[in-house]
Amino acid sequence: MTRDYSRFFPNLSTNTGSEPRSVLDTLGWQPFFAQQISSEEIEGTPPVRVTKVHRSGLHVQGAEGKFVLPPRSDATVGDWIMYNEALPNSSRVLARKSLYQRRAPGTDRQMQLIAANIDTAFIVTSCNQDFNIARLERYIALALEAEVTPVIVLTKADLSDDAGHYVETAETISDRVAVVVLDARGDEPEAKLAPWCKPKQTLAFLGSSGVGKSTLVNTLAGTDVTTQGIREDDSKGRHTTTHRQLHLLKNGCTVLDTPGMRELQITGATSGVSELFEDLTELSTQCKFSDCKHESEPGCRVLAAVARGEVDASRLQRWTKLVAEDRFHSASLQERKSKDKSLGKLVRAEQKRKRNRK
Ligand SMILES: Nc1nc2c(ncn2[C@@H]2O[C@H](COP(=O)(O)OP(=O)(O)OP(=O)(O)O)[C@@H](O)[C@H]2O)c(=O)[nH]1
Ligand SMILES: [Zn+2]
């Protein structure tokens, strides 16, 4: 079957905007990807998106249907691949808009790809005891590191007497991160998340268990998509029930839901942490000592800003902790052995400080 792919190239497009959405559009195909390929390439090796990573192979979907590619470690859920039917191993992974990755546990500690090409990460927490500013900052730093736009979503506003307080606190995190408060059930999500839930956009919902991630996805989808299991054969021919990792919503956006994203550590998130705490990072470059720990050193510009009331002392502590954690997790195993001690020291100092405050 020969398909007309011309409309997937912005410069060749004859799309008037009134045509029904194509399969590629509903999978999140964007000009960013089209720009990387020639029209000959798209005819010979059509683009497909990775919808699920399984030990037995990469499940992909494109205009021609669904396929399974041989397993490979350089592609992950959300990736776009130019599918080479004759030589599947030669299929080309397109450059990514964004990438979540983590350092593997175990000895080799290689970087593992978790999820690619997410546009917006909704960082979900509730207007209750789940709300934790340090955890929100951690998710935001990881999103910034991955080059994904973070948005804070506060659910269960309907169950709280003081939703406004949670909004105000969340808004102190960063001027650049939007905060949305809602009831995850009903009509609110569609209207309030509309600025980010546009056709061809890929979204992710992150946060602790029970905060309303599935509720939000199902509300936006208009149907229960998150609990639908799919029976399929695993590599041994057994039937197993697995869950989709890529959901297609009715308004044309795609939701990526992969287990790896729920247990993200701060690893290699140095630039995400610096971006979120831009003011502190900038101040710290002006401290008298280049290795200043901003504890009690003379000439510390960060402590001076705290003393002047320009920087919140607890925010400084959260930043120091994230920087230490990032260094620890990003270090090699050898470096870690010696750093284990210093992180332990940091944690003990923090505990002591808390005790003294009481
Ligand atoms: N009243 C109210 N209930 C909510 C809201 N959001 C979620 N819930 C309820 O909270 C419970 C947990 O919601 P889920 O959507 O399953 O939470 P989750 O984040 O997907 O949880 P995991 O699947 O464990 O990660 C469900 O009973 C929801 O109906 C909300 O905004 N208001
Ligand atoms: Zn300092």
Automatic annotation (TrEMBL):
<dbReference type="GO" id="GO:0042274">
    <property type="term" value="P:ribosomal small subunit biogenesis"/>
</dbReference>
<keyword id="KW-0479">Metal-binding</keyword>
<feature type="binding site">
    <location>
        <position position="294"/>
    </location>
    <ligand>
        <name>Zn(2+)</name>
    </ligand>
</feature>
<keyword id="KW-0547">Nucleotide-binding</keyword>
<dbReference type="GO" id="GO:0003924">
    <property type="term" value="F:GTPase activity"/>
</dbReference>
<dbReference type="GO" id="GO:0005737">
    <property type="term" value="C:cytoplasm"/>
</dbReference>
<protein>
    <recommendedName>
        <fullName>Small ribosomal subunit biogenesis GTPase RsgA</fullName>
        <ecNumber>3.6.1.-</ecNumber>
    </recommendedName>
</protein>
<feature type="binding site">
    <location>
        <begin position="207"/>
        <end position="215"/>
    </location>
    <ligand>
        <name>GTP</name>
    </ligand>
</feature>
<keyword id="KW-0699">rRNA-binding</keyword>
<keyword id="KW-0963">Cytoplasm</keyword>
<feature type="binding site">
    <location>
        <position position="292"/>
    </location>
    <ligand>
        <name>Zn(2+)</name>
    </ligand>
</feature>
<dbReference type="InterPro" id="IPR004881">
    <property type="entry name" value="Ribosome_biogen_GTPase_RsgA"/>
</dbReference>
<keyword id="KW-0690">Ribosome biogenesis</keyword>
<dbReference type="Pfam" id="PF03193">
    <property type="entry name" value="RsgA_GTPase"/>
</dbReference>
<keyword id="KW-0378">Hydrolase</keyword>
<dbReference type="InterPro" id="IPR010914">
    <property type="entry name" value="RsgA_GTPase_dom"/>
</dbReference>
<feature type="binding site">
    <location>
        <position position="287"/>
    </location>
    <ligand>
        <name>Zn(2+)</name>
    </ligand>
</feature>
<comment type="similarity">
    <text>Belongs to the TRAFAC class YlqF/YawG GTPase family. RsgA subfamily.</text>
</comment>
<dbReference type="GO" id="GO:0005525">
    <property type="term" value="F:GTP binding"/>
</dbReference>
<dbReference type="GO" id="GO:0019843">
    <property type="term" value="F:rRNA binding"/>
</dbReference>
<feature type="domain" description="CP-type G">
    <location>
        <begin position="108"/>
        <end position="264"/>
    </location>
</feature>
<dbReference type="InterPro" id="IPR027417">
    <property type="entry name" value="P-loop_NTPase"/>
</dbReference>
<keyword id="KW-0694">RNA-binding</keyword>
<comment type="subunit">
    <text>Monomer. Associates with 30S ribosomal subunit, binds 16S rRNA.</text>
</comment>
<keyword id="KW-0862">Zinc</keyword>
<comment type="function">
    <text>One of several proteins that assist in the late maturation steps of the functional core of the 30S ribosomal subunit. Helps release RbfA from mature subunits. May play a role in the assembly of ribosomal proteins into the subunit. Circularly permuted GTPase that catalyzes slow GTP hydrolysis, GTPase activity is stimulated by the 30S ribosomal subunit.</text>
</comment>
<feature type="region of interest" description="Disordered">
    <location>
        <begin position="331"/>
        <end position="358"/>
    </location>
</feature>
<feature type="compositionally biased region" description="Basic and acidic residues">
    <location>
        <begin position="331"/>
        <end position="350"/>
    </location>
</feature>
<feature type="binding site">
    <location>
        <begin position="155"/>
        <end position="158"/>
    </location>
    <ligand>
        <name>GTP</name>
    </ligand>
</feature>
<feature type="binding site">
    <location>
        <position position="300"/>
    </location>
    <ligand>
        <name>Zn(2+)</name>
    </ligand>
</feature>
<dbReference type="GO" id="GO:0046872">
    <property type="term" value="F:metal ion binding"/>
</dbReference>
<dbReference type="InterPro" id="IPR030378">
    <property type="entry name" value="G_CP_dom"/>
</dbReference>
<feature type="domain" description="EngC GTPase">
    <location>
        <begin position="116"/>
        <end position="262"/>
    </location>
</feature>
<keyword id="KW-0342">GTP-binding</keyword>
